[in-house]
Amino acid sequence: MDMGLSSKTALVTGSARGIGKAIAMELAREGVHVLVNGRGVDEVERTVRELKAAFPATSPRNAAADLTDAEQRAALFERFPQVDILVNNAGIYEIMRYEDVNDDVWDRYFQTNVLAANALCQFYLPAMLKQGQGRIMFIASEEAVMPSGLMPQYAMTKSMLLSLSRSLSKLTAGTDVTVNTIMPGPTLSENVQQIIEGMYPDESMTFADKETAFMAASLPQSELRRFIRPAEIGRLAAFVGSPYASAFKGSPIRMDGGMVPTIY
Ligand code: NAD
């Protein structure tokens, strides 16, 4: 399916690796010029080169910046003043005991997962509204609506994104600008793969064995019984970014392998 995205420009935050990189790849497959972001200039450059090699008709650019740093954000806005699609994917997560979540931790999570994304919306949304077209996505998590209790500092920030997305969507009434939230369930980014490898050091086990063991022991509610692949989220994001997805307005869009019990 041609998603009608050819020659659009997209900023995907945290796209040097993981889910963000997969979103960048799937957008580039549709002919989108992707602004690749991450904190490390070299890591971002490697992804830019990979995108260019895979999709030579597109012009990926290095948009490295620490998005929690206001000066680096301002420099980014100066270099890239306009985008058609903004994917707020960058985020941090780790398992933490509630008693260890002090004010500094809350602050770091709020700055990274919420305020940085909000600052990007504040900058890019007005131009989208002015031209009556644009797409903004937040990458939240099933933790936004189903906190496991294993990472309260993270779940809070992902719930906030749902609320922010809904508020911003109200501003888009009557335009072809959309603001939506994708809620992936457990997804096999490199980071998650490393965590699983660390949990099962037994060298006689293949990764598939480890994945099956982990899903059965830790995520029995998953109906998918495997991790979601980043490209699956990437493909969904490309669709939500496309002209065919105009009717998604302020929607929480679940791709969680059946993790979240449905509330009708
Ligand atoms: P990851 O750690 O592999 O990648 C996150 C990216 O964000 C990295 O490239 C990192 O450099 C970047 N980033 C972090 N802070 C940044 C900052 N201040 N400025 C710029 N870039 C920054 O993570 P992932 O597993 O690919 O997850 C991506 C997103 O999807 C996150 O928001 C995460 O919360 C969400 N998510 C992940 C899963 C999962 O199971 N992997 C499930 C649900 C939601």
UniProtKB/TrEMBL annotation:
Coiled coil: none annotated. Keywords: Oxidoreductase. Its EC number is 1.1.1.-. GO terms for molecular function: oxidoreductase activity. It comes from the Bacteria. The keyword Oxidoreductase applies. InterPro entries: NAD(P)-bd_dom_sf, SDR, SDR_fam. It is an enzyme of class 1 (oxidoreductase). Belongs to the short-chain dehydrogenases/reductases (SDR) family. This is SDR family NAD(P)-dependent oxidoreductase.
